[in-house]
Amino acid sequence: MNLTFTPAAISRVHALCQDLPGKLYLYYLTEGCGCENSGIFTLKLVTETTPEDIEFSSNLGPILIARWTAVFLEEQLKIDYDSKSNALILKSDGQFYNRNLLLMDTDNNYVYTPKNEQ
User: Fold this and answer.
1) DSSP code string of 19-86
2) Domains in the chain and their CATH numbers?
């Protein structure tokens, strides 16, 4: 799997993560969704990994993902930033996975939510 961040997304991610510890993780959030097959991808910062975590390549360096969630994604992915909606977007050539990709810190607090950004 390969993930490409657009220049606008790189700028936004760097601004959001500036002093926060951790490594980027493409996290499949299932809390409140009912079951493991019903969830949404988000970005999360992590300082520890588990045996189920694997790395894949991106133009920002290695990104972590849980092995079992990788099956939900296509081989080539992109994260873009839309300044009009102030949102990061996870997509492929074939579909959108999340048009409002949020960022969580290591304590599971949201660092980025478009509603609280200016």
Assistant:
1) T--SEEEEEEE-TTTSBTTB-EEEEEEES---TTEEEEEEBTB-EEEEGGGGGGS-SEEEEEEETTTT
2) 2-106 (2.60.300.12)
